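I would like you to sit down with the record closing this message with an eye to the fold:
=====
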Amino acid sequence: MNSNYQEVAKKILVAVGGAENIDEVFNCIARLRFYLKDSNKINYQELELIPEVSESKFEDGQLQILLGQDVEKYYQVLINLMKQTDANRGVKKMSKADEKNKKLAEQIVKLVGGKDNVISLVHCVTRLRFKLKDEKKANDDAIKQLKGVMGVAHAGGQYQVIIGNNVADVYDQVMPLLGLSSEEEVTTDDEKDGNIFSRLLL
């Protein structure tokens, strides 16, 4: 079964233009979502020839590939393939990812009203959960347009920025900007609710 994941991931990698064409990839419930450097390199015919791919479409600046409940396994294999490619080139992909997360963190802090508007921050499976002094200072529309942000929500007295599976990495970049300690336990009480919301995004 593992060899099948490997073969499918290799075919997807080729169809999206190779590892060097991928800016960012993450998985959400049933799909792989790609931010690509050049969307013209997408080979939709190749994607259609992969039986495991139920659907592929380019929407909101993302290439979305529907793979079903095993998407997490395909994602992990794909990431490993990309790391191998980077290792062969001597490229440090993680430092590039950290740089992107830092830039996103800076944009988010600015658009939620700045450091002085933040009381506290925790995260769950897919979301940054801010407690703000004044939620009206947060720019919903601008935050939604940020590359790496899937949406925003106002719930339970929190201002929630939906990031996806790499939320912990972005959180680690946001905390120093706020001057807050990250020693708090991550809240997971409403992960289930977050997953339901994510399904609505599909």
Observations:
- The chain has a mean pLDDT of 82.
- The chain is about 40% helix and 20% strand.
